[in-house]
Amino acid sequence: MTNMTASLGEASVPDAAAHVRYKSPTARGRLPALIIFLPPALLLFTLFVILPMGEAAWYSLYRWNGYGTPTEFVGTRNFQVLFNNAAFSQALVNNGLIILVSLLLQVPLAIWLAVMLSRKIAGVVAFRLVFFLPYVLADVAAGLIWRFVYDGDYGLFAAIAGFFGVATPYVLADKDLAIYAVLAVVIWKYFGFHMMLFIAGLQALDKSIMEAAEIDGATGWQKFRFITLPLLGSTVRLSVFFAIIGSLQLFDLIMPLTGGGPSNSTQTMVTFLYTYGVTRMQVGLGSAVGVVLFVICVTIAFGYKRIFMRHD
Amino acid sequence: MTDHHRAPVGAWLSTLAAATALSAIVCTPAMSAQTVVKWMHVETVPAYVQAWEEIAQKYEAQHPDVDIQLQFLENEAFKAKLPTLLQSDAAPDFFYSWGGGVLRQQAQTGALKDLTEAMNANGGAWAKTYKPAAVNGFTFDGKIHAVPYRMGTVSFFYNRELFAKAGVKADSIKTWDDFLGAVKTLKAAGITPIAGGGGDKWPLHFYWSYLVMRNGGQKVFEAAKNKEGEGFLDPAVIKAGEQLAALGKLEPFQNGYLGATWPQTLGAFGDGRAAMLLGFENTEPNQRKNAGDGKGLASDNIGRFAFPTVAGGAGKATDTLGGLNGWGVTKRASPAAIDFLRFLTSPETERELAAKGMIIPAAVNAEDALKDRLVRESADQLAASTWHQNFFDQDLGPSVGRVVNDVSVEILSGQMTAKDGAQAIQDAIELE
Question: What Å distances lie between residue B193 and B160, B310, B333, CA to CA?
Answer without folding.
Answer: 12, 20, 47
